[in-house]
Amino acid sequence: MQTAEIMKITALYARLSADDELKGESNSISNQKQILREYALSNGFTNCKYYIDDGFSGTTFDRPDFSKWVDDVEKDLIGTVIVKDLSRFGR
Fold first, then answer.
1. CB-CB contact of 70 with 83 (8 Å)
2. Whose CA, among 9, 13, 56, 77, lies 20 to 30 Å from 47?
3. How many CA atoms lie within 13 A of 18 on its CB side?
4. For 23-57, what is each residue's pLDDT tens digit?
5. Cβ of 6: how many Cβ atoms within 10 Å?
């Protein structure tokens, strides 16, 4: 178990593009957040932080919260990144 002063963030990343909205509720940000939270809790991941890019295509990595969590990884603040599926990460 990590101590409080060195406890790394568990990044929970969700993304929804305008095209995804046409595919229905299953891809919604709220649905993704619920799936990510439940997975993290049931698998012992703590110190969770959401990184959300709503309205951004997966065909580019030029997304605000994607860039934030990459910066946090480079700063050695993040121990784990969890996404609903790899299409949320990028295409």
1. no
2. 56
3. 0
4. 555 568 899 999 999 999 999 999 999 999 988 88
5. 8
Contact between 83 and 16 under an 8 Å Cβ cutoff? The reply is no
Query: For position 45, what pLDDT does the model report?
Result: 96
pLDDT at 24 (0 to 100): 53
- Give burial (CB, 10 Å; 0-12/13-18/19+) of 89: middle
CA 40 – CA 33 distance, rounded (Å): 10
Phi-psi region at 47: left, alpha or beta (left = phi > 0; alpha = psi -120 to 50): left
Report the alpha-carbon distance of residue 57 to residue 43 in Å, rounded: 29
Q: Hey, which bits of the chain come out as E strands?
A: 9-16, 48-54, 78-83
Residue 37 pLDDT? 97
Question: For the whole model, what pTM was predicted?
Answer: 0.80
Question: Rounded to 5 degrees, what angle do the CA atoms 11, 12, 17 make?
Answer: 125
